[in-house]
Design brief:
The structure holds two protein chains of two kinds. Chain A has one domain. Helix content of chain A is 72%, strand content 4%. Chain A contains eleven helices and four strands. In chain A, a hairpin with a 2-residue loop joins strand 2 and strand 3. In chain A, helix 9 crosses helix 10. By secondary structure, chain B is mostly helical. Chain B folds into two domains: 282 residues, ABC transporter involved in vitamin B12 uptake, BtuC; 74 residues, no CATH class. Chain B has a two-stranded antiparallel sheet with strand order 1-2. In chain B, helix 2 crosses helix 10, helix 6 runs antiparallel to helix 9 and helix 10 crosses helix 11. The C terminus of chain B is likely disordered. The chains are: A mainly alpha, B mainly alpha.
């Protein structure tokens, strides 16, 4: 029984990671850059939820406001910081992304202060089935994530925009020749990724109500690790990697001997997987051409 | 063959001279007791930052691989070196110069253990490329930190931190600057040697470097190891300078801070790294006393904004023409008359003495070329038809 509870906990943590990892992996696939600031978009989403909860009080409205704001934020970050660097060395783009990450964190701290805020989204209670006790927030997280992932997969597979995204990720130049507006596709990708980050922020606040300006830092790094484990650039890979990370985290947290080392174990999983599959579980091996 | 005195490129040794002057001047003042402890603290931190930045610049600027785990290697050095000195010092309390021996031994041990970790993490990680390597080094740094954080109190101090012995503050920063000098000498001589050219060749085009017979893995591993060796040494100095080693200090944020120094100084420029490291550390410590509470974040905000602007300005393809028109080099050139150097054609980036590759047009036209007897223009044109 306890094992099932642990597993469910892992799945709900993992699906949050997967939602964040989707943002990383889509941006990587299409813009070929590591968006280091992605984790901090989650934090901004968290603060938006906090603001709307204190002013309006409805968590659903808060979520919508957060998604809207994060989408706009993602688009403007892309336009201001990353677009001028298109075609520059990947390292330059990565460092700009790190700069954006710091910028968001310090701006949040200046506006909201460094003391953590308590954000109680709503008290959902527990579901009891026989001996099982499952908090409702886990089920909500799991259900929402599954719906989001399904919707995203269908969107990418069956809509014109989604297929254009795949085309751009495979060959930017050829996609442009086929009449795809690459800049618009990149903007849409950032918008989707940032919107997903707001959802992730909502899930994280449901789980633990403490909100500070580093809310997104560690989950961001872990989700990024998950995206790399799954094979960065691959959408199903991000889902698999995220779930794997979540389950590893939940299981390791229940074993007292290794619980303090949970972070280390998760990163160790990354190193071990990359040793055997240098491009991740579902990543494509690309031969370098001269 | 020894070079004539006038042939030595003095420009190459300017940074040694600068470090030596700083060491001698401040060292003298400190021994005389004329330096306030705040200045000594500042100098220690600057020396540590310079060592870290120069060693990271070897990996990022010259090898062209991104490492986000430099603080992890520093962490290994700080803990191991701190532990060794904490164990050694009571044992050597009776012997003359016991403190000095403990310091030297701990520096060696900390550096070597960090270097071994560099090999351990480098061997598998260097199979990976670019972003994958970045995330693995980041993961390594976090693993190391998490392990040291959860050690028991009597081994490495755990969450409370490891207490390290004290060394006379008057002399510690002098030792730190001597180590900066060593780090500088090793890095600079490596980069300017045959091996250094192989390393930059790998950065510029790995496949081409492989094709010319450069052992890419060997060089990558060597650079990685040397870089982590110096990070470990900087870690030991850090442990001495701070009295305690806290694992929370060595998070990936610190790695990124070092990376920022390297990037702001200019990739592939050792002097740039030195200046940026000194400047950032100086501002950091000075501003810490001015800005308190939540205002301290203003500093981070400004850093972030400056970082973004500088990287975009230096790298944006759209700003290329603007950049070429208004840069520091042109500005300096306006005030300085440079003599013509045949090795520098069109102000290219060639760093080493080289044969002039372009022949001047007027020299070519004034050359007296005799047609050879075997060649007659008429015949040749007929055969062509």
């Amino acid at each position: 029984m306890e094992f099932i509870e642990t597993l469910l906990n892992g799945l709900s943590i993992g699906s949050t990671y997967a939602i964040i990892a989707l943002g990383y992996t889509m941006v990587y696939g299409i813009a070929k850059m590591l968006n280091f600031a992605h984790g901090d978009v989650i934090m901004v989403g968290g603060y938006m939820i906090f603001l709307s909860l204190t002013s309006v009080g409805n968590p659903i409205l808060g979520l919508l406001a957060a998604v809207l704001f994060c989408v706009l934020l993602g688009i403007s970050i892309e336009k201001v910081a990353y677009k001028p660097l298109r075609g520059a060395s990947p390292l330059a783009v990565l460092i700009t992304a790190i700069g954006v990450s710091y910028l968001l964190q310090s701006t949040a701290q200046i506006i909201f202060g460094s003391a953590p805020k308590m954000v109680v989204v709503a008290d959902f209670g527990n579901l009891t089935v026989g001996e099982l006790t499952i908090p409702y927030y886990m089920l909500i997280t799991l259900g929402c994530s599954v719906v989001i992932m399904l919707a995203l997969s269908l969107f990418v597979k069956y809509t014109r925009t989604g297929r254009a995204m795949i085309a751009v990720s495979e060959d930017k130049g050829a996609a442009q020749l086929m009449g795809i507006n690459v800049n618009a596709i990149i903007t849409i990708t950032f918008a989707i990724g940032s919107g997903l980050a707001a959802f992730a922020g909502f899930f994280m606040l449901m789980k633990s109500p403490s909100l500070s300006n580093t809310l997104g830092a560690m989950p961001g790094i872990k989700a990024f690790t998950a995206a790399v484990i799954g094979g960065i650039g691959s959408i199903p890979g991000a889902m698999v990697g995220g779930i794997l990370m979540g389950v590893v985290e939940a299981i390791s947290l229940t074993i007292p001997a290794i619980a303090p080392y949970t972070d280390a174990i998760e990163f160790l999983v990354l190193i071990v997987i990359l040793l055997f599959r240098p491009s991740g579980i579902l990543g494509k091996v690309r031969r370098e051409k001269v | 063959m020894a070079k004539a005195f006038s042939e030595i490129k003095w420009k190459y040794y300017l940074n040694y001279v600068a470090v030596a002057i700083v060491t001698v001047v401040f060292g003298g003042l400190s021994i005389a007791g004329a330096l306030p402890s705040s200045t000594i603290y500042l100098l220690e931190k600057i020396a540590i930052s310079i060592t870290l930045a120069v060693s990271l610049s070897m990996v990022v600027g010259f090898l062209g691989e991104l490492s986000l785990g430099h603080a992890g290697f520093m962490c290994v050095g700080a803990y191991l070196g701190g532990k060794v000195s904490a164990v050694l010092e009571p044992m050597l309390a009776r012997t003359p110069a016991g403190k000095e021996i403990a310091l030297i031994v701990s520096l060696i041990v900390g550096g070597l253990v960090a270097a071994v970790f560099g090999i351990i993490i480098g061997l598998p990680a260097l199979r990976l490329k670019g972003d994958y390597l970045a995330i693995v080094t980041l993961a390594f740094g976090e693993i190391v930190r998490s392990i040291f954080m959860n050690t028991s109190a009597d081994s490495f101090g755990g969450a409370l931190g490891l207490e390290t012995p004290r060394f006379d503050k008057k002399y510690l920063f002098i030792i730190a600057f001597v180590l900066v000098f060593v780090c500088l000498a090793v890095t600079q001589n490596l980069i300017r040697s045959k091996h250094g050219r192989a390393i930059t060749a790998i950065r510029d085009n790995e496949i081409a470097a492989k094709a010319t017979g450069i052992n890419v893995t060997k060089y990558k591993l060597a650079v990685f190891t040397i870089s982590s060796l110096f990070a470990g040494i900087a870690g030991v100095l850090y442990s001495y300078s701070n009295y305690t080693v806290q694992s929370s200090k060595f998070s990936y944020n610190y790695s990124i801070e070092i990376l920022v120094m390297v990037v702001l100084g200019g990739m592939g420029s050792i002097n740039g790294s030195i200046i940026a490291a000194a400047l950032i550390t100086f501002l950091d410590i000075k501003l810490q006393t001015v800005l308190t509470g939540d205002l301290a974040v203003l500093q981070d905000l400004v850093y972030a904004a400056v970082l973004i602007v500088i990287v975009i300005y230096n790298n944006a393809p759209g700003l290329k023409t603007f950049r070429e028109k208004y840069n520091l080099k042109n500005f300096i050139a306006k005030f300085k008359k440079t003599k013509h150097d045949p090795a520098r054609v069109h102000d290219d980036e060639a760093k080493w003495d080289r044969v002039p590759t372009k022949i001047k047009m007027d020299e070519l036209l004034s050359m007296d070329i005799q047609p050879s007897s075997a060649y007659t223009p008429d015949k040749a044109s007929k055969e062509d038809k």
